[in-house]
Amino acid sequence: MRKLLTLLSILLFAIAGNGFAQIFWTENFESGSTSGLLVTAYTGPNGTWTQTTGTGEGGAANMWYVSCAENDHTTGVCGTGCAPVTTTATLATLHVGSNALSLMGADPGAAYDAGGFCPSIYCVTTDKRAISPTINCTGKYTISMSFYYIEDGDLTTDDGSVWYSPDNGVTWSMLVNTPKTLPICITQGYWTHYTVALPASANNNPTVKIAFNWVNNDDGTGTDPSFAIDSVSLSTPVGSVPVPSFTLSPSSTVCEDSCVTFTNTTTGPVDSFRWSMPGITIATPHASPVSICFTTAATYTMTLTVYHSGTSYTATHTVTVNPAPHPVIHYGSGHVLSVTGSYTAYKWLNGTTVISGATNSSYTCTSPGTYYVLVDSGGCWGYSSTPVVFSTLEILSINNEPNNFWLSQNGNSSMLHAGRDLDNDINIQLFDATGRIVSNEVWVQGSYTKELNNADLAPGLYIIKLSNKNTSAVLRWLK
Fold it and tell me: Cβ(38)–Cβ(65) under 8 Å?
């Protein structure tokens, strides 16, 4: 019954001290022995305990025992000898006792021979480590170790400590040099509870070991108790599972041709994660942050899936991509560019330069250049899908045909423009740089534009000759 109360007190302490904890590994050292069982002969519910010995140990060195010669107790109780409550429950502990070869005899509980007779009679110099079986911490994070203990000795020369190995005992580091417990008991020491955090290397690690170490320098000075441990437990905080979350920047509502950056902000233990979005191929689904650019208006759902201990957890956000306008520029008489449709705002550009004051639905060109229009539709700005390029802008006049003429390029299309509809037909001859005629067409009266048949022409300098029955004029054109 007392052992049950001990386990309950461990759980209650973990709850009070750690904001709720979940115990996943315990060792209570219930060997059934009343005295003399060496730790190397003990196999508990987690497996067999082992032992290592340091160099220079004496032949009568102190020993690790698992018995109730030092009885189990909870916090605030003075140590006692074996007091079994049933024939099968002996309330045993792991403790350091004297060697059978010493004058004190084997396993008197947590009482040790401090020596002082080496080498004349026997040596009790000790450096022994009692080592746990392998502890599988797979899927466990933010691990704490708790136990009850008593300890005295002689400062650091006769001293107990707790050790940790992340690699099945290949390498070790001291976890804590436990403080001496209060010397307020007439009998053995004052049982005390202790909790220490395991290093981060224990997280999700299947090859963890813990150990308890005892050293004695055989100088004849020391005070009982030696070192006794019981009710060891490893725990994690309750709710130690991933809480998936992520942020979006600049927002969850954007326009076409915009990009959104997603950043993983998940808390808790995570083995791996991945992004997914139907209709979108994500080049780096396991990276954070990740940026997605949207070219088509629609509603998209980004899902972050995090994995921990074979279980998946998800978080989602919806991204609304509103359509961005892609206006078409029309060019008309008088060098006027215009946009059909109604928009909230307009910005005309020559190349990448915003033209000051050009904020209407039309713009009159005054110089050669590459012209775009940027329009606002419901908060989404969009560029014209194809620019208008004026490679040459010249004002010409043909006798008897008062008019202005100029040349424009819109993508692959090249157009001749007149200031007004022609009153008479005009012949169009196109010459390359060698003077060879490469095209001969007629611009029929009654229209003010004429598309040049130049799809097969190589880039270069050309001369356009415009003529009627009375006179002619030329335009230089760099295709």
Answer: yes
Burial classification of residue 402, based on how many CB atoms lie within 10 Å of its CB (0-12 exposed, 13-18 middle, 19 or more buried): exposed
All residue ranges of the chain with pLDDT < 50 are: 1-19, 87-88, 393-396, 398-401
Per DSSP (E only), the strands in 98-135 are: 126-131
**In this structure, are 17 and 33 located in the same domain?**
yes
Q: Are residues 171 and 272 in the same domain?
A: no
Using CA atoms, how far apart are residues 264 and 274, in angstroms rounded to an integer?
10
| Distance set, CA 120 to CA 63, 292, 479 (Å) | 21, 81, 110
Residue 117 sits in a domain of what CATH number? 2.60.120.200
Question: How far apart (Å, rounded) are the C-alpha atoms in residues 349 and 374?
Answer: 8
The model carries a pTM of 0.53
Which residues neighbour 448 within 8 Å (Cβ) at sequence distance 6 or greater?
332, 333, 417, 418, 419, 420, 421, 422
* Structural contact between residues 145 and 21, judged by C-beta atoms closer than 8 angstroms: no
Residue 441 lies in domain? 394-478
Q: Is the torsion defined by CA of 99, 100, 103, 107 positive or negative?
A: positive
Q: At a CB cut-off of 8 Å and minimum separation 6, what does 27 contact?
A: 44, 45, 46, 132, 231, 232, 233
Rounded CA-CA distance 24/13 in Å is: 15
Q: Which of 370, 389, 408 is the last residue of a domain?
A: 389
